[in-house]
User: Fold this.
Amino acid sequence: MIRRLLVANRGEIARRVFATCRAMGVETVAVYSDSDADAPHVAEADYAVHLPGNAPTATYLRGDLLIAAARKCGADAVHPGYGFLSENADFARAVIDAGLTWVGPSPKAIAMMGSKLEAKALLADVGVPMLPTAVEPEQVDTFPVLVKASAGGGGRGMRIVRDRESLAEAVAAARREAASAFGDGTVFCERYVERARHVEVQIMADSHGNVVTLGERECSIQRRHQKIVEETPSPAVDPQLRDRLCQAAIAAARAVSYVGAGTVEFLLAPSGEFFFLEMNTRLQVEHPVTECVVGVDLVRLQLVVAEGGPLPFNGPPPLRGHAIEVRLYAEDPAYAWMPSTGTLHRFDVPGVAHAFGPLPAPGLRLDSGVADGSVVGVHYDPMLAKLIAWAPTRAEAARMLSNALARARFHGVTTNRDLLVRVLRHSAFLSGGTDTGFLDRHPEVFAPLLSSVDAVRLSCLAAALSGAARRAKSATLPGLPSGWRNVPSALQTVVYEGPTGTIEVGYRLDRSNDLAAWAVRRIDPEDIGLPGAALDPAGAPDHPPAQILSATGDQVVLDVAGVRLQFAVHEVGPVSFVDSSEGSVTLTELPRYPLPVAEQPEGSLIAPLPGAVGRVLVVPGQRVAAGELLLTVEAMKLEHPVHAPTDGVISDLRVTAGSQVESGALLAVLTPA
Assistant:
């Protein structure tokens, strides 16, 4: 029996495993890096061990330190979670050799499935369908192809190549990314199937010979070949196809004498054919949707099987209803998926019924690695949380999930929330028309989730009125209305940097503290603090009439053309986060008379985000062409390229490989030709 378990991971998956351990009476041990010292998973464990440093290679990828931590705390078992060392056969073997229980498949099974090339060769012999594969670029004779890393997963190392001219650079880039992420730069090329779906089968196997499938999951909506929306059952799979998929998954599991939780992934072509992609020898990120529709705790089953116990069933349980999961990332989809860092000042999702375990009834489940005050850094994957909806039908699950996301409050970092809501509400998604190219074909889902043209204007007005209420409360003469004048005067103005640029808000209250006039306009940032045309509400006839029903430091209620609207305002320093049924808007108040700042030289290339400089491909004095790759910045397990915006000469280079840079730091200066 497992008495005390160490989770060799962090964040959401560590909290997920701890939740089941508490329910089963198993004590828990967390590990944490420097930047994770205050993370929720550390506080929730019975014991915690510090891993000095921040880089994964110095902390969560150090198998020796993880085993030493288990021994130090008296743990008798190790759960790897997902990512990091979860599919590392050497680590699994070291855990077992240390006399600890490994919660996962055998090291041999991990090694056999760890190389996609070896797995394809092995499973082809037992009849699992395969796509044509080329190990060397010279062997590719038809396009398009998908360049893939042989080791690891999560979409890293993948590149779609549509012509021979692009193949060499794509292979080189994939090798670099795979070597950085997995320590193995082996890649191969596989035929790319247009408009294909990504469908996978969850399996559980015990040491008594039972191999059971728990339905399929559809994971077709992806960015950077990484899933962001997952659901079960798939809208494209009927009972006959499900049976064929499950039989192929069972054949794959039996071929390697598999024991534990695993996932066999397939590519489903429009013709109905399917092909093996890979086998993940661990628990998947998207396992909650299966737990909902099957009604099992997969982590509990992992522990039962690791203790040598049998599965509680011999065949696939019936599926109940429909479940959809979305992954909430700290990133900006409209800006090339750029990761976002900073303090998460507020993290609130309304209507959640349960967290970190199977739902007792249809509803919302939240598995999160963060909480209010968490700091999102550059060292790890930018996923913040997973939100799951389970309902009797697919349409109900999509509606429940999109509504909860739209009403959620995420303050402090940019997230992909708006994109997820638009995907869930899109007619193509609701009709089941999803495949791996969904986001490419539907650019409209990248638009901000604002309900009307007036959404930003009204949010700006609410922020200004909320600020005025806060100032009035702390005023020396609190009895006077905000902005009181004994003669008619111009509008009171506030300038914000907002989602549509720099915005000036003007308002005037009458003697009863009611809104007498208001107006909003976009302005040139260079004009801030300079004399100019007065903000004239009469010049903005498209502004709807508004009346203040109430205004406090954290909430403003307006009557807008006869419709009551509530705006929650959360102020952090100069930043106001405004949430309403109109959408969520982040506004940064600008000083009335800004201080002068040093101008960057013409042609400055700045860091797109904090991170470490990876490759530097230029030297001072070098002539470059527009679009040429100059250097890369590595952050959140990804490589971000910096290209030349125009032809020119590198007149200044401020960084070298390995340099740590902050967002906005000057990297180089390119003097245009």
User: Anything to note?
Assistant: The radius of gyration is 27 Å.
